[in-house]
Write a structure and sequence with these properties.
single chain; Methylamine Dehydrogenase, Chain H; 2 domains
């Protein structure tokens, strides 16, 4: 368990009492561990329900119990799930039918699992994979993977579909990947706010332009020549995430980026140059030859959750999952209790910041600091107040309670931390009954 200390204060006495949260990284025993068929992808719906892709697709309630009202039959593997703004569900993978209807590796479901018959994509070769499906705000849909044609039209590794499933002719990636389905693969697609598209995977060129495992495309599918191209990552890029400031997180099995050592996790500036201020130390290491990061997620406060096949991060044991601060350093407050040599193939965040993990141990949920609460250290003082060790310039919400057992917290004030440590004094407490205090980090 980890203590975020909360203090009572009056003009006569002061007493410290621990406000107890489950240790971030510990397995949440309140989560029902429903068995799922393999595991390749995860998504959270707006109502908090959990979609799990593997051999077919399963829907769970937010507590992990199976949603028996969701009925979807997929004749193969689901490698990617995305929820549209209208709650319809896009799936990609390697399959031939959905609910008995012909669908070649990409389909769209209604929220109850029934097939959306208004979305009819053209045929994709039966040996092909769709590893990524990404809905655009305008209703178009990007798909990336190992395929050479869509509906008989040359689309080597990436295509854009209309809302009805037809190939968008205005998105033309040219020759795309040199050898899709043979040596080359697009494993992840990410859409920037300016409409440009990041693609990562394993390839040496895109549309005949030298690109090592990462490229950025313009909205029409052409290569963005202003993005730093080579030498790029020297191995697979399995996942990307775009920060609000436009910086780009990369995860994979690479050991260098742009000829600089970076073990399996790196950050690029918006123009593609390596961000030297992202300090991951030794990076991700030691997993009997696996050594990869296959999933990366951003928390609202800028922290970064990574999952994959690894034992250590910057020399510290982390068993397949870890949290990094926004500067790349390891968050030592987050200590996963997953078994030794666990692998976290894919992960996602619930609205309360708890982490759903799909990996070698099946489906788990890990505790985390709740959204809006950061690991600030609060210290006891002789004044009616508390000492805050936190991020200078960070916003904190100060709350108090007159009786801790009820967990009824009242708003006192908002504070921009001017220094750390900082002594906050509650001038309203003079002559009043005892008060307990806590500070919550506001994203």
């Amino acid at each position: 368990m980890i203590n975020i200390y909360v203090f009572c204060a009056s003009i006569l006495a002061c007493l410290s009492v621990p406000y107890v949260l489950a240790q971030p990284g510990s397995i949440d025993t309140n989560f029902i561990t429903t068995a799922v068929s393999a595991g390749n992808s995860l998504a959270i719906q707006t109502d908090g329900k959990i979609l799990v892709g593997g051999t077919g697709i399963t829907k769970l309630s937010s507590d992990g119990s199976r949603d028996t009202n969701f009925q979807a039959s997929v004749s193969g593997e689901v490698w990617s799930i995305a929820v549209q703004g209208d709650s319809k569900i896009l799936i990609g993978g390697r399959f031939t039918t959905v609910n008995g209807a012909t669908r070649s590796s990409v389909a769209r479901l209604n929220s109850n699992g029934s097939l959306d018959e208004s979305f009819v994509p053209g045929a994709i070769p039966s040996s092909a994979f769709v590893f990524s499906v990404v809905p655009q705000p305008d209703g178009m849909i990007l798909i990336g993977g190992e395929f050479s044609t869509v509906d008989g039209i040359s689309r080597r590794g990436i295509a854009r579909l209309t809302g009805r499933g037809t190939v968008d002719a205005f998105f033309n990636p040219g020759t795309g990947l040199p050898n899709p389905q043979i040596t080359d693969s697009i494993r992840c697609v990410a859409l920037q706010t300016d409409g440009k598209i990041l693609v990562g995977g394993f390839f040496t060129a895109f549309n005949d332009v030298p690109q090592n495992n990462l490229a950025r495309l313009n909205a029409d599918g052409s290569v963005d020549t202003n993005f730093v191209k080579v030498p790029g990552p020297n191995g697979f890029v399995f996942a990307t995430a775009i920060q609000p400031d436009g910086a780009i997180l990369l995860a994979g099995n690479f050991t260098s980026v742009n000829n600089k050592p970076n073990n399996r996790i790196a950050r690029l500036l918006p123009n593609g140059q390596l961000d030297a201020n992202f300090a991951v130390g030794e990076g991700v290491t030691e997993m009997l030859g696996v050594n990869m990061v296959s999933s990366v997620k951003l928390q609202p406060n800028g922290d970064i959750i990574i999952g994959g096949g690894f034992e250590k991060v910057d020399g510290v044991r982390r068993n397949g999952i870890a949290k990094l601060h926004s500067n790349g350093s390891l968050d030592t407050d987050f200590v996963p209790t997953t078994p030794n040599r666990s692998q976290a193939y894919v992960l996602t965040l619930q609205s309360d910041n708890k982490i759903i993990v799909l990996g070698s141990e099946g489906l788990l949920r890990l505790n985390n600091f709740p959204a809006g609460i950061g690991p600030a250290t609060l210290g006891l003082s002789t004044y009616a107040g508390l000492k805050i060790d936190g991020s200078v310039g960070g916003r904190y919400r100060i709350e108090y309670s007159t009786f801790l057992e009820t967990n009824a917290w009242l708003f006192l004030t908002n504070l921009v931390l001017p220094d750390s440590p900082f002594l906050f004094i509650d001038v309203q407490s003079v002559g009043r009954q005892q008060r307990f205090y806590r500070a919550l980090a506001n994203p």
